[in-house]
From TrEMBL:
Classification via InterPro entries: NAD(P)-bd_dom_sf, Sc_DH/Rdtase_CS, SDR_fam
Region (Disordered): 1-54
PANTHER family xrefs: NADPH-DEPENDENT ALDEHYDE REDUCTASE 1, CHLOROPLASTIC, NADPH-DEPENDENT ALDEHYDE REDUCTASE-LIKE PROTEIN, CHLOROPLASTIC-RELATED
Keywords: Oxidoreductase
Sections of the chain in a coiled coil: none
Gene source species: Flavobacterium suzhouense
Family designation: Belongs to the short-chain dehydrogenases/reductases (SDR) family.
Gene3D superfamilies the UniProt entry points to: NAD(P)-binding Rossmann-like Domain
Record protein name field: SDR family oxidoreductase
Length: 304
């Protein structure tokens, strides 16, 4: 008996997004910065057992900052499963998370390069790009994803040192890394920045962080105009509340954490895995007319 195409393939089950993943209330938990995905409860889903690739990024060479955990890890897993070689940067205290990602990339038969180091240091940012280019044999995709977020009730509680650390990590590092990477990027290459709903709708307790995300959205739009004629696309992803170590290591108050994502129309936080396909789409040739755009994933709350 003849079967049509739809019958032959396995059909994708409809999934109700409101109950697909854990909902609040969450258990109280606090880790010291920068936190580990391995110690979160429940453990975030980065697509370890769910993301299926189809060769969309075969042979590409990607550098992802903050690739050890959270959204960066989800992008790293997806890129490797789509056929890319991947270098990840992370803070030295995150070696445990990073090694899990390295193993997952290698399982796909792809090159995995682990590049620990502190992004607040300009010379490290330059070395990072150099080592990624050497290890990968070039660079096609740069994902500026790492960030620092520390919640403070009042502006009076933010020291100059803390303010500086947030600016260095979130604003300076992408500037230094992008400058170092640009000479290696050819037409068709892309830069992706992780911004936030905070860029448009800042929370009172994220005074410094929210400013940096407005800066991120802005550099994406400016750089896209600058690099468009060179054939290099620059886009951003604006997440809403996502279940990652950043939130349990000073990024949110305990009160906010317990109800995390509960105020979105979907009633729960997003999982990093739910953003992976956006990072793939923005790097893929199929997204070739999108540049200077911000793509949201915020459970129905916030606007990119
Ligand atoms: P995460 O903690 O998993 O990732 C952040 C990463 O930043 C860390 O893993 C760490 O490797 C890196 N990092 C921070 N400071 C560093 C430093 N000085 N040197 C080297 N690495 C450093 O959390 P995440 O939520 O996946 O964060 C990824 C991106 O998503 C960030 O840009 C964040 O602003 C953005 N974002 C997150 C949310 C959310 O709710 N989780 C919402 C909007 C935007
Ligand atoms: Mg981490």
């Amino acid at each position: 008996m003849k079967k049509d195409k739809a019958e032959k393939g396995t059909s994708a089950q409809l999934e109700d997004p409101t109950v697909k993943y854990p909902q609040p209330p969450f258990k109280k938990q606090q880790q010291s910065w920068p936190g580990l995905a391995a110690n979160m409860e429940p453990r975030p889903d980065h697509g370890e057992s769910s993301y299926q690739g189809s060769g969309r990024l075969a042979g590409r060479k990607a550098l992802i900052t903050g690739g050890d955990s959270g959204i960066g890890r989800a992008a790293a897993i997806a890129y490797a499963r789509e056929g890319a070689d991947v270098a990840i940067n992370y803070h030295p205290d995150e070696e445990q998370d990073a090694q899990e990602v390295v193993a997952l990339i290698k399982e796909e038969g792809r090159i995995a390069i682990a590049l620990p180091g502190d992004l607040r240091d300009e010379s490290f940012c330059e070395t990072l790009v150099q080592k990624a280019v050497e290890g990968l044999g070039g660079l096609d995709i740069l994902v500026n994803n790492a960030a620092r977020q520390q919640t403070q009730e009042s502006i009076l509680d933010i020291t100059s040192e803390a303010f500086d650390a947030t600016m260095k990590t979130n604003v300076y590092a992408p500037f230094w890394i992008t400058k170092a990477a640009l000479p290696h990027l050819k037409p068709g290459a892309c830069i992706i920045g992780t911004t936030s709903v905070q860029a448009q709708d800042p929370s009172p307790e994220l005074f410094d962080y929210a400013q940096t995300k407005a800066a991120t959205t802005n550099y994406i739009r400016s750089l896209a105009k600058q690099l468009g004629p060179k054939g290099i696309r620059v886009n951003g992803v604006a997440p809403g509340p996502i279940w990652t170590p950043l939130q349990v290591s000073g990024g949110a108050t305990m009160e906010k954490l317990k109800q995390f994502g509960g105020d979105t129309p979907l009633g729960r936080p997003g999982q990093p895995a739910e953003l992976a396909s956006l990072y793939v789409e923005l790097a893929d040739n199929t997204g070739s007319y999108s540049t200077g755009q911000i793509f949201g994933a915020a459970g129905g709350g916030g606007q990119p």
